[in-house]
Amino acid sequence: MSTTSKDGCWGLVQVYTGNGKGKTTAAIGLAMRAAGWGKRVLIIQFLKGRDTGELHSLARLSPLVKVIQAGSGEFCQPGERPPGLAEATERALGLAETALASGEYELVILDEILVAVSAGLAPLERVLKLVRHKPKSVELVLTGRGAPPELEAEAHLVTYMTEVKHPFRCGVEARRGVDY
Ligand code: ATP
Ligand code: MG
Known about the structure:
Elements: E1 2-4, E2 8-10, E3 13-17, H1 23-36, E4 41-46, H2 53-59, E5 65-70, H3 85-102, E6 107-111, H4 113-118, H5 124-132, E7 139-143, H6 149-154, E8 157-160
Parallel strand pairs: 3-7, 3-8, 4-5, 4-6, 6-7
Antiparallel strand pairs: 1-2
């Protein structure tokens, strides 16, 4: 961990997981908060390739905040692997490793990486290595359902979003500006 007087204890590992809504939203909110204090932020979105409101909002925070989408563009059901997704995930892992080592970013968010691990697309050992060897100066956030216990054990902060209710259950489909 790295410590400065204003930032306190910067450089922790955070995990946002669980089956309820709000993991990616929380990570994007954190990016905005950090950028407000001049922090350089990188967000890599695993498995994703769709247009979302946050891409447009975060573009306004460029060059402080950078977003890279690393999905195939297809909607991915559990157990399915659209063509190109394995290669895209591999590229995203390489980018994450390089970005962490570069010292260019103070906050790195690996959105949906935990889903990539559960799906067998991102090897757990490689992600554990990435977490264990990250520079002390980088705050690292991992999001996605189904965090493996080994990654939770490495984290300093673990938050579960628990579904109590979701309008999806009443047939409400994904809403622009709320869900994407
Ligand atoms: P968000 O992106 O809204 O913060 P999330 O990151 O917690 O949600 P994911 O598990 O990444 O959720 O799911 C991706 C999509 O599924 C989002 O559009 C999200 O709104 C929606 N979603 C989240 N939780 C649920 C749920 N319990 N049931 C149905 N859909 C959900
Ligand atoms: Mg999400």
